[in-house]
Specification:
about 180 residues; mainly beta; 2 domains; two-stranded antiparallel sheet; binds zinc ion
Length: about 180
Amino acid sequence: MELPTLSYRLIPQLAELGATASLTGVLPLTVLEKGALHLTLVDGIAYDLQLTNTGNGVLLVGVAHARATTECARCLEEALVEVQGDVECYFMLNPRDEELELIDEDMVMVGADGMVDLAPPILATIVFELPQVVLCREDCAGLCPVCGANRTTTECACADAPSTSGPFAALRDLL
Ligand SMILES: [Zn+2]
Ligand SMILES: [Zn+2]
């Protein structure tokens, strides 16, 4: 999948201690993958962010929200999943040596040009909040293992008379 970028210039606007900025918008992403999950984003990833200079860096906090469709893990019909999560990231302006050792994925060095990419922390928030398994509805009954009917929307007779139809019944007759 191709990831969008959201370039933002921190310097000089946010060079002073206490300086703040906020921005809202939508990351134009259409496809998202997490493990075996393959999702189609309905209208990108919406974000609402605040940036604050806290001294040695700029703290990014905010929320990200997305709606996506994918196959229900039980019945294979379309399922809608809605995720929202907190975005947090720290952009270091003047790190001391001991701080450089602490740098991880939530801490990013700001380039000499004062530019940062806000898309990775937004994306990471949505990917983290995605469920492992998506169902069309919490009580989705899934597919009938005998006839393949969607048990949520169709009533098949298999549960009442499991030995009278389907490929396994034919096998049972042979035995
Ligand atoms: Zn389902
Ligand atoms: Zn059935």
